[in-house]
Amino acid sequence: MCDVLAHEIDNALANADNKIWHAHPVWFLNENPIVGYSKQKPGIRLMFWSGADFAEAKLDVVGKKFKDASVFLNDVSEVPRRDLRRWLKRRN
């Protein structure tokens, strides 16, 4: 699942810098974190910084401090590829 996420993100954000940040893969544009994922108890959390501005129902875990939004995934079949591509276009 993480390989699929990384592939989709790399393809959509070709100009982004990818690095390990706080022990998790994160993609940056102009030194600002854009998207990343991490393993947590509920599953793999795919998170978009400033994702709350997307107003997307599927990004249902919304942070309060950083306006982040995320979704938890537990199987590669749950990766919302079409949605993911749309979300990434908003950040590119």
Count of individual beta strands: 6
| Average residue pLDDT | 89
Largest sheet, strands/sense/barrel:
6 strands, antiparallel
Order of helices and strands: HEEEEEEH
Distance between the termini: 22 Å
Low-confidence stretches: none
How much helicity do the residues have? 10-25%
Radius of gyration: 12 Å
Number of helices: 2
Estimated structural class: alpha+beta
Percentage beta strand: 35-45%
Strand order of the largest sheet: 1-2-3-4-6-5
Overall geometric form: globular
Summarize this structure as a short list of keywords or feature phrases.
globular, 92 residues, 6 strands
What does this structure look like?
- A six-stranded antiparallel sheet has the order 1-2-3-4-6-5, covered by helices on one side.
- By secondary structure, it is an alpha+beta fold.
- It is built from two helices and six strands, in the order αββββββα.
- It is globular and about 30 Å long.
- The chain starts with a helix and ends with a helix.
- The longest helix has 11 residues, at 2-12.
Describe the structure concisely for a colleague.
The protein has 92 residues and is of the alpha+beta class. The chain has helices at 2-12, 81-91; strands at residues 17-21, 24-29, 32-40, 43-48, 61-62, 69-73. Helices cover 24% and strands 36% of the residues.
What is the strand and helix layout of this fold?
Elements: H1 2-12, E1 17-21, E2 24-29, E3 32-40, E4 43-48, E5 61-62, E6 69-73, H2 81-91
Antiparallel strand pairs: 1-2, 2-3, 3-4, 4-6, 5-6
